[in-house]
Amino acid sequence: xxxxxxxxxxxxxxxxxxxxxxxxxxxxxxxxxxxxxxxxxxxxxxxxxxxxxxxxxxxxxxxxxxxxxxxxxxxxxxxxxxxxxxxxxxxxxxxxxxxxxxxxxxxxxxxxxxxxxxxxxxxxxxxxxxxxxxxxxxxxxxxxxxxxxxxxxxxxxxxxxxxxxxxxxxxxxxxxxxxxxxxxxxxxxxxxxxxxxxxxxxxxxxxxxxxxxxxxxxxxxxxxxxxxxxxxxxxxxxxxxxxxxxxxxxxxxxxxxxxxxxxxxxxxxxxxxxxxxxxxxxxxxxxxxxxxxxxxxxxxxxxxxxxxxxxxxxxxx
Amino acid sequence: xxxxxxxxxxxxxxxxxxxxxxxxxxxxxxxxxxxxxxxxxxxxxxxxxxxxxxxxxxxxxxxxxxxxxxxxxxxxxxxxxxxxxxxxxxxxxxxxxxxxxxxxxxxxxxxxxxxxxxxxxxxxxxxxxxxxxxxxxxxxxxxxxxxxxxxxxxxxxxxxxxxxxxxxxxxxxxxxxxxxxxxxxxxxxxxxxxxxxxxxxxxxxxxxxxxxxxxxxxxxxxxxxxxxxxxxxxxxxxxxxxxxxxxxxxxxxxxxxxxxxxxxxxxx
Lengths: 317, 268
What we know:
- The structure holds two protein chains of two kinds.
- By secondary structure, chain A is mainly α.
- Chain A has helices at about 10-25, 25-50, 60-80, 85-105, 110-130, 135, 155-180, 185-195, 195-200, 205-230, 240-255, 260-280, 285-300, 305-310; strands spanning about 140-145, 235.
């Protein structure tokens, strides 16, 4: 089972992710898979912050919202093409993330969790705020057009959007993989494990923590942009506490400090609620809860640990 | 920051009249001593004498009051903690502070962190600089794995390894950063008799091989006395003796500090 940890695996996985859905998936399934890609990026963003760097965030949904609204407003008000909104979203969210990372330096552990939670609570209300209504559409939100495949490619809108999101996701995953396996990733984990020793090794903790916050917000914000384009709609109540907690669930279920775990976590948060719904129409929440507990009980290291167990590799991240 | 004229020629570390207070308690009451280049200097004293406080001042954990700490002719007072490694001051921790979830190799690579400078963007894009730094971080790794007998555990997470091994990992992590001064905080603590016996020899080998100075804070008298060329003894935040191990061992103040006034009681 060395296959899963080999260097070729990400490429094979990507190739399969490009080809198989185009051949076999219906438009609705493609939509769901596009959302899996979107959630993967968001969960990865949270994982960089919380899993790798140890800064617990229960409010990353706020960055997702900022990304989504940035794209929606730029498309709706300024008529920018969907793809051109992504760099704006990335930069704006990185900036906001950096700023939120500054007070976060003073807040350790549970206090940081609580503060970011407050951010998640406040987000929908801020989005409904009257003064911004001209841009945000207030409670109504903003409706977006679905992009067509460019250059006359023989693809349906859903197929094109899936491939577009997959390309952006693959790029971001590649960047994250480069980052975490080198000097920066080691410093991020060192801070999480043992901050005093990390400092003694010459690591500037404040600098790393704020930049990691910016990085996390950037990933999550781009996910929000892609999510807005995919769902073709943004509205305040989609970006509340449940969204932030969903990302958190995805990160924990997938496995903290694991790049591949982000994909598995995203599959979980996209499909398990549907499965729970099919098992019991009356109490899907209870079934979901039970499934969640079962997963945690059977795989305390997250889904990513399953692969490590199968490939006989000890956990090192 | 005052630059002193003796850079490169004077002592590697000069502590002058150092004072450290915690509220009303004077932990260090004006202590001065030097550590020369290539020297192994032992810092001894009974519990509460200020050894660890001195250690934390030198490594930048505490901000001292009056006095100065000068490293290679340059004052380190007020510098942030994360700058110490770059200056050439490496350290180990009394209770072993490893990055437990990371492999031994990765722990050591973190020790080489300050030798690089590539940032988030360079690393995410794997630029030439970041790849060159990554390769350079491995410099000296094999040598250290062999020297400290860590090769067999190099790819295991540091967390689950035995205490003696963890202490060696810490040493390896400090050494890969190529410090000029190595601060060791109670390296013998928690080790068994045989392991302590090997330690003195290891420190001398490390000093000779990496051409560094060692400041050793240690309870274990036999170890300090056998390995140090110079010993500084503290009591109640004051220096009570300084000199060769023999000189310090025979200093009446030191005997009194360690044995109490038992001799006097006996006479009375």
